[in-house]
Amino acid sequence: MRFNNPEQRRPAPVPPGATVSARVTPLPLDDRVVTRDDTLAVEAPLELRLGGKPLTVLMRTPGHDEELVTGFLFNEGIIADADELISLEHPSDARDAEHGNVLDVRLMTARRLPSERLFLSNSSCGICGKQSLASVELHGVPVRSDLVVPRRVLAALPDRLRGAQPVFAETGGVHASALFTPAGVLVAVREDVGRHNALDKVVGWALTEGRVPLGDCLLLVSGRVSYELVQKAIAAGIPLIAAVGAPSSLAVALAERFGITLVGFLRPGSMNCYAHPSRVTE
User: Fold this and answer.
1) Same domain, 245 and 221
2) Taking all residues of the chain, what is their mean pLDDT, rounded to a whole number?
3) Among 119, 123, 120, 83, residue whose Cα is nearest residue 2
4) Which residues are annotated as active site (predicted)?
5) Do residues 215 and 233 lie in contact, with contact meaning Cβ atoms separated by under 8 Å?
6) What is the pTM of this model?
7) Where are the alpha helices (DSSP H) in the chain?
8) Total domains, the chain
9) Is residue 217 part of a domain?
10) Dist CA 233 CA 240 (whole Å)
């Protein structure tokens, strides 16, 4: 199954439903209080059904929902390719208020029974609801790639990412994940209130475009790097993760174990490499 949603090279518009207007009262210390309009990032539930049966609820920012679900199913090991999706549509029996917030997926086959994941996935946690420590453990293969990236290219990427974040520009309230070439060309970027949702959307896009594994791209995330982000990068075959923020101890350990270059605190004049620095050249 392929979605007719080619990636745009120009900054994309804000997806419908991704933002909402609200009244805000700034409280300065040395000026009078004036209420004004503001724009907020939307956080809303997306009910995911599998063959008409409820599977999970994802708390997300509306926009690119099909990619989010595709990436989620891939990263959960339920599908291995977008062609395993027979259909992904809004069910006709959903109430009007729910119509845009329910997606029903029909698969050729499920590679893993998803019953253990029947839970509410909030926007800040990508592995919440796992039933045991053993279920969190990742079973995969090390990432193999000849990708190398000059430091100067990496240092320029945060500014390029910021220029491709329309929802963040309006709200300041979302995370972003972006794929770049080793030359620094933006391939795809997605935003969401959940950092793991943003990455699921990017991976879902890549899967529908037939680009997984992503051994020829690097991943840039707008915040910190946690275990689940590295886990998703391993599943997608991404050889290098760069982040504006810090990595966690488990993220570093997982990157080291599976051959992923992990860069944190990425700035125009500096960066730290925590695992496999050989892919970052002078």
Assistant:
1) yes
2) 88
3) 83
4) 125
5) no
6) 0.89
7) 65-75, 133-136, 151-162, 166-171, 195-208, 227-236, 249-258
8) 2
9) yes
10) 9
Instruction: In the chain, count H helices and then E strands.
Output: 7, 15
What's the rounded Cα separation, in Å, for the pair 203 and 221? 13
CA distance 254 to 261: 10
Average pLDDT over residues 72-95: 90
132 and 159 both lie in a single domain: no
Residue-range definition of the domain harbouring residue 241: 149-281
Any idea what the CATH number is for the domain that residue 121 is in? 3.10.20.10
pLDDT digits (tens, 9 = 90+) for 94-146: 776 677 899 999 999 766 655 554 455 665 565 555 544 454 456 678 999 99
The answer to whether residues 167 and 14 touch, using CB atoms and an 8 Å cutoff, is yes
CB burial of residue 202 (10 Å; 0-12, 13-18, 19+): buried
Three-state SS for 3-57 is: CCCCCCCCCCCCCCCCEEEEEECCCCCCCCCCCEEEEEECCEEEEEEECCEEEEE
- The last residue of one of the domains, among 115, 136, 157, is 136
Alpha-carbon distance 117 to 136, whole Å? Answer: 12
Q: Is residue 177 part of a domain?
A: yes
- Residues with catalytic roles: 125
Q: Is the pLDDT of residue 5 over 50?
A: no
Q: Do residues 157 and 224 both lie within one domain?
A: yes
Q: How far is CA 221 from the centre of its chain?
A: 8
SS3 182: coil
226-251 pLDDT tens trace: 999 999 999 999 999 999 999 999 99
